[in-house]
Amino acid sequence: QVQVVESGGGLVQAGGSLRLFCAASGRTFSSYAMGWFRQAPGKERESVATINWTGSRTSYADSVKGRFTISRDNAKNTVYLQMNSLKPEDTAVYYCNIDPPPRDYWGQGTQVTVSS
After folding, report:
1. Residue 88 confidence (pLDDT) above 90
2. Measured between alpha carbons, how far is residue 59 from residues 15, 42, 88, 116 in Å?
3. Among 38, 14, 9, which residue's Cα sits nearest to residue 86?
């Protein structure tokens, strides 16, 4: 099973940028598609971006398309999420996980807060 530790969140002003990191453990990491997900207060968790196992294919939620970029380095067992032009509505706890995510495992997430 792939386990993850997310980091890189913080407080940023609208229009700013952040880069999130997902350190994954497990020898099978490079076999899995990975995704970034987020959950805002009072809302359900949603998929933000996904990347296939080689990194050659990515997909994005419409709300972040053109602003966020997902990438991975299989040699480092790491997935990244570059977030530019951040908006207050991007405020949420961000999680990474395999895609599709299992029902019974999520990391602790990293908080992203965008002030207006």
Report:
1. yes
2. 22, 25, 22, 27
3. 14
Name the amino acid, one letter, at 65. Answer: K
Q: Are strands 34-39 and 92-98 parallel, antiparallel or unpaired?
A: antiparallel
Q: What is the C-alpha to C-alpha distance for residues 57 and 105, in angstroms, rounded to an integer?
A: 24
Residue 26: predicted pLDDT: 81
Evaluate if residue 10 carries a pLDDT over 90: yes
CA 63 to CA 110: how far, in whole Å?
19
* 42-46: long-range pairs with CB below 8 Å, 24+: 43/92, 45/95
| pLDDT tens, position by position, 18-65 | 999 999 998 788 899 999 999 999 999 999 999 999 999 999 999 999
Whole-number CA gyration radius for the chain: 13
